[in-house]
Specification:
12 helices; Purple Acid Phosphatase, chain A, domain 2; 6-stranded mixed β-sheet; 2 domains; single chain; 7-stranded mixed β-sheet; 13 strands; alpha/beta; 44% helix
Length: 406
């Protein structure tokens, strides 16, 4: 196996070193921005998100109380107090999750994340209440407001329970690809694609072990991990990826960073992943039994000029098949022009749960999920094995992908 470190980076065990030297590294890491400016931006972002959550909770409560005829309390009712507390739970838990990682913190964060998913469906139910009631009146249907609200909010609860069960059930998706100039030795071999496990406070050691156990049963020839192995919060990094030490495949496992590994300095994640026996492709190329594999980290794959430079420096042999590992389905035109045969990505989660499935499809189009063609290049975008935020999936399924080469 040949491994080539592309000129845009130093060796992977020294961490990401972008083209452009020290000034560019500082620009990307935020060192050139004053601490006060960063704090202001974070404060504004948090304030906007919290305001949206306050309004969503207020709307849900007012709809629920109005349709069920709940009388206005003289003071603050227990329900109002509970909703007020829940409205700040996810933001507070998220901020604390970047500093603490222990059992209590995991329980608090997981509870807040579940409630965020329940809120999503309750908000949709509240919206539907204000649509269904006037439409029913228009058509002369005698549907009472309590019956409408009771039905729709019951559906919201059912969708939440279904989403939790569905989100924890990893499927195995099998696809076949026929790439130009595939080495004869690779015909019939199988690669596994894993992305977006988001190991952290919600998906913990047990989830990591389940993924690896499934891979051991499937026995692929090589494993590709397309980023967001971690959730990016405080965690016991080595323990979360410890099960990967038990994975043995003929041609190893290869990882590229996702956006969650790049929330802060990704070096700590890269070191933990390498200690687990997984090879980190930090803007590097490897040739495995004639098959060219290029791994580009998330921040560089989203920069068209940088991505083009990295792929040109890879000196791809266009008479041999090549695979690009990039966390998000970005830069498809550039990858295709530079002769990539197959791009493997994740990131989108397919939208994870409705109605974000619709939003994701507006952002990424046909490359939101599945096996697609972009000119002469084949593209597969995985919905991912884990979840971010609410541990729920409605409208999508978590997956590990088995790719057989023809």
């Amino acid at each position: 196996m040949n491994q080539v470190s592309l000129p845009t980076m130093k060796q992977a065990d020294h961490g990401p070193r972008p083209l452009g030297g020290e000034d560019d590294r500082r620009r990307r890491s935020g060192e050139g921005v004053t601490g006060a400016s960063v704090r202001v931006r974070i404060a504004v972002f948090v304030a906007v998100i919290q305001s949206i959550l306050f309004l969503a909770h207020w709307f849900v409560y007012e709809t629920w109380a109005g349709f069920l005829g709940v009388p206005d309390p003289s003071g603050i009712s227990r329900v109002q107090a509970a909703l007020a507390l829940l409205s700040v739970s996810f933001v507070v838990a998220s901020l604390l999750a970047f500093r603490y990682y222990h059992l209590v913190m995991r329980l608090v964060y997981s509870t807040a994340a579940v409630w965020l998913g329940v809120l999503n469906f309750c908000f949709l139910a509240a919206c539907c209440c204000w649509i269904v009631y006037p439409v029913a009146r228009l058509f002369g249907l005698h549907w009472g407001r309590p019956a409408i609200a009771g039905t729709l909010f019951s559906v919201a609860v059912f969708a939440s329970v279904y989403g939790i069960i569905n989100g924890a059930w990893i499927r195995v998706r099998r696809i076949t690809v026929k790439l130009p100039h595939t080495p004869q030795s690779w015909r019939g071999r199988v690669a596994a694609l894993v992305s977006d496990t988001h190991l952290g406070h919600v998906r913990t050691y047990g989830f990591s072990r389940r993924v690896v156990t499934l891979l051991r049963r499937l026995q692929p020839d090589v494993v590709f991990i397309a980023g967001d192995l971690y959730d990016g919060t405080k965690a016991d990094l080595d323990r979360l990826v410890a099960p990967w030490k038990e994975l043995s495949t003929p041609f190893g496992a290869y990882f590229v960073t996702g956006n969650h590994e790049e929330f802060s300095d990704p070096v700590k994640y890269l070191h933990a992943i390498k200690r687990s026996g997984v090879c980190v492709l930090n803007n590097e190329k490897v040739t495995i039994d004639g098959l060219q594999i290029i791994g580009v980290n998330y921040s560089d794959s989203g920069n068209p000029e940088r991505l083009g430079s990295i792929l040109r420096c890879a000196a791809l042999d266009r008479d041999r098949a090549s695979i690009l590992l990039a966390h998000a389905p970005h830069g498809l035109r550039i990858a295709e022009e530079e002769g990539i045969s197959l791009q493997l990505s994740g990131h989108t989660h397919g939208g994870q749960l409705f109605p974000y499935t619709w939003i994701a499809s507006r952002l990424y189009g046909q490359y939101t999920y599945g096996l697609k063609q972009f000119g002469n290049m084949t593209v597969y975008t995985s919905s991912g094995a884990g979840t971010w935020g609410p541990p729920m999936r409605v409208g999508t399924q978590p997956e590990i992908v088995l790719i057989q080469f023809e």
